[in-house]
Predict the 3D structure of the following.
Amino acid sequence: MWYNESVIYQIYPFGFCGAPRQNDGALVPRIRKVADITDHLVRLGVTAVYFCPVFESSAHGYDTADYTRIDCRLGTNQDFKYVCDTLHAAGIRVILDGVFNHVGRDFFAFRDVQEKRWDSRYKDWFHLNFDGNSAYNDGFWYEGWEGHYELVKLNLDNPEVKEYLLSCVGGWMDQFAIDGLRLDVAYMLNRQFMRELSAFCTDKNPEFFLAGEMIHGNYRDIVCDGMLHSATNYECYKGIYSSLNTMNLYEIGYSLQNRFGSEDWCMYRGLQLIGFVDNHDVTRLASALENKKHLPLAYGLLFGMPGIPCIYYGSEWGMEGKKEEGDDALRPAVDGVQWNELTRFIAAAAKAHRESRALCYGSLKILHQQNHQLVFERGYEGERVIVMVNAAENAYVAHYDARCGCGTDLLTGNRFDFGAGSVMPPYSVQYIRCE
């Protein structure tokens, strides 16, 4: 399917577009700003854009007030359709955030319960107890998401709730021609609802992509037949920056081998997980890495390892932002895109990934590893690509059985000779397609 060969670009629209943090009710077509960077996305090698929440909410988007209307801070449904049409015309797919575990307190059904209480026809849409009270003194208790009571947990066992949400998704597919969904907090999302959502979307569009946010847990619980196609690979996310900071590439090498190696016991062999080095919830890579010369190496690992690579907006030119500084630091407005050495490297890595079946689908085998170096092979239907990473400030010659005499570096187009060992320049990444 198309998504297995994709390069995804993540945008947090409220931040990217410079919208106010709280919904001020003013209608401003800020979302059209995304269409303005279409050429940048094409040049970068992006084939799909994943939008964090775009629908009407009170604050950050994950507190949905209306699933049918684009947030007024971003514009109208027509404004967003223009963006989707522009991206589609450039060959870029559109993936939306599916926030179905909970809604905001301004959601119409919850407002009805606040007004009518036990007489509300929507009282069974939530997990309520009229004998208690809420943190907002509603006069009834309700379950919030992980203790956040501005996020009201939906009762996804209720057929009416599921029917309503599926009708909204169908509307998004019809109106915006979206190509996929990333399901928020999929690690705790109702499993039966995910099955019904999968069946619904597949029936409307057999190529529709469903991915889930998995911060912890077994990815195979939700990435399987009849459920989702992918999930966010948080396990390797941590391993990438941590192994570079500690100069211990055994860490990420172990994670990759343990999860994607060819042995039967490897946990996620065959799964196409979404790989990333940062996103809207974590410290940006340029702030997480202690040595900025390791920035391209982290992306080299991302595009070279199994999975679907995802780039977070602004990080392609080294934007910084620390989680401890708050959401605004991680989700800033962007006034114009930038191109530098890092951006050019990512574009080259994205091109190599898209054009190599081995990098998109291949098996993984560790060939050589030291504290500062890692070499692994990706292989698929006769194509072999050897990924070589040297995190040290000095050149290194790795000796191993490459089973080929020479090849071509997919990142530079340069010829490569394995005869005298694999020569790895300082702070380098190489993708050598064997001949």
In short: The first strand starts at residue 8 and ends at 11. The mean pLDDT is 96.
